[in-house]
Amino acid sequence: MQVRFTFDDDLMKKNGYERENVYYTIKKHFQQRRLKCISEDENLIFADTGNENDYGNMWSIILALVLSDWFVDCATSCIFEEDGETEDVLVQIPELREIYATA
Length: 103
Known about the structure:
Elements: E1 2-7, H1 9-14, H2 19-32, E2 36-40, E3 43-47, H3 54-66, H4 69-74, E4 75-82, E5 85-88, H5 93-102
Antiparallel strand pairs: 1-3, 1-4, 2-3, 4-5
């Protein structure tokens, strides 16, 4: 199980964000939940550690990110992968935000 993020430097600069700060913030949240960063180049990728709470922890972070305007202003992709199946999280943002707005 893993989640992969990509960002556009021009988009981040246009919106007033620096790649280093974006990566630091996201990595901090995953590290707090003991999820491992396996790539921090063009793709920022985090993977599970085999802990039974990894799935819930990962989705807790993903949902917090998609509800954050700064993340939406920076991310060009957010792909969740589990057992060979992939899920494009960014295309779900309008629906997820609507669900949380009415909760």
